[in-house]
C-alpha cells in the first residue's frame, strides 16, 4: 500500500492524538454541528472531505454546539482557509525588521513579513507565582509572601502541510519543505518576536522569546510534519536609576 493511500486513511482525531497525546481528548473534537475550522481543514487534507456549497455565505455567524454548554456564536471578519472555512483562533508572528546572526557571528537586520501559523495550531499557556514560604516554628502552617509573577510559558503545537488543490480537493502528497523553512526562519531570530492572537491579546502578551523548536514525523504520513515551539512571554521592563545629588560645602 503506497503512502498516499495510507495518508487518506487518517482522521483528525487519530493524527492529533498520535502526535500530541495531551490534546487527544480536547473539546474541539467533541463539537457537534459545525466543526472547528482547524480540525475541518486538516480533515480535508487527510482525505475525510466534504464539499462546501460554492454559494455559501462565509460571512454568516457560526454556531458551535458544545453539549450542555451554551452555544457559542462567532462572527466577524475572520481569516479563511483555502476552502473558505474560518480560522477561529488564528495566531501570527508580526512582520518587521529583526536581528539574526550572520555566519560570522555578527548581527544583521532582516525584514520579515507577517507569518500566520497553520490553522491546525494549538497554544497552551501557564504561569507561576513567585511565592516565598516561611515555616512557623512551633506552629502549624507557613507564612506566604507574594513577590510577583513569572513569565508566561507558552507551548505552540501544530502540523505543517502543503496546500494543493487536485480535482477540487485538497491533498497532502507534497512534502512541506517550504513550510519547514519558513517556521525555522523565525527560530533564527535573535530577539523577541511580535505575536498576535485572541488568547495572546487576552493575556496581554505582545511578544515572545522562542526558546526551542521541535520538528517531528508521523508514522506512515511523511508529508504531515508536526512541530512544537516552546516560548516565553517577553515584556519590556523600564528601569529608573536614582542618583544622589552632591552638594559642595559652603
UniProtKB/TrEMBL annotation:
Report which superkingdom the organism of origin falls in.
Bacteria
Residue limits of the DUF6046 domain?
116-243
Q: Pfam families recorded for this chain? A: DUF6046
Would you tell me the protein name for this molecule? DUF6046 domain-containing protein
Give the classification, highest ranks. Bacteria, Pseudomonadati, Bacteroidota, Cytophagia, Cytophagales
Amino acid at each position: 500500500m503506497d503512502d498516499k493511500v495510507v495518508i487518506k486513511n487518517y482522521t483528525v482525531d487519530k493524527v492529533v492524538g498520535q502526535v500530541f497525546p495531551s490534546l487527544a481528548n480536547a473539546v474541539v473534537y467533541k463539537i457537534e454541528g459545525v466543526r472547528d475550522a482547524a480540525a475541518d481543514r486538516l480533515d480535508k487534507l487527510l482525505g475525510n472531505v466534504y464539499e462546501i456549497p460554492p454559494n455559501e455565505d462565509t460571512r454568516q455567524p457560526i454556531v458551535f454546539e458544545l453539549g450542555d454548554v451554551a452555544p457559542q456564536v462567532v462572527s466577524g471578519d475572520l481569516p479563511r482557509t483555502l476552502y473558505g472555512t474560518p480560522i477561529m483562533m488564528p495566531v501570527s508572528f508580526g512582520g518587521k525588521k529583526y536581528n539574526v546572526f550572520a555566519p560570522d557571528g555578527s548581527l544583521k537586520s532582516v525584514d520579515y513579513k507577517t507569518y500566520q501559523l497553520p490553522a491546525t495550531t494549538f497554544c497552551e499557556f501557564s504561569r507561576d507565582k513567585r511565592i516565598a514560604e516561611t515555616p512557623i516554628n512551633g506552629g502549624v502552617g507557613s507564612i506566604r509572601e507574594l513577590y510577583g509573577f513569572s513569565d508566561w510559558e507558552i507551548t505552540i503545537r501544530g502540523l505543517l502541510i502543503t496546500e494543493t488543490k487536485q480535482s477540487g480537493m485538497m491533498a497532502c502528497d507534497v512534502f512541506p519543505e517550504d513550510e519547514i523553512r519558513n517556521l525555522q526562519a523565525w527560530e533564527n531570530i535573535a530577539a523577541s518576536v511580535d505575536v498576535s492572537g485572541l488568547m495572546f491579546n487576552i493575556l496581554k502578551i505582545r511578544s515572545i522569546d522562542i526558546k526551542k523548536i521541535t520538528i517531528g514525523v508521523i508514522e506512515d504520513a511523511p508529508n504531515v510534519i508536526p512541530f512544537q515551539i516552546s516560548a516565553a512571554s517577553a515584556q519590556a521592563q523600564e528601569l529608573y536609576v536614582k542618583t544622589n545629588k552632591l552638594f559642595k560645602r559652603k
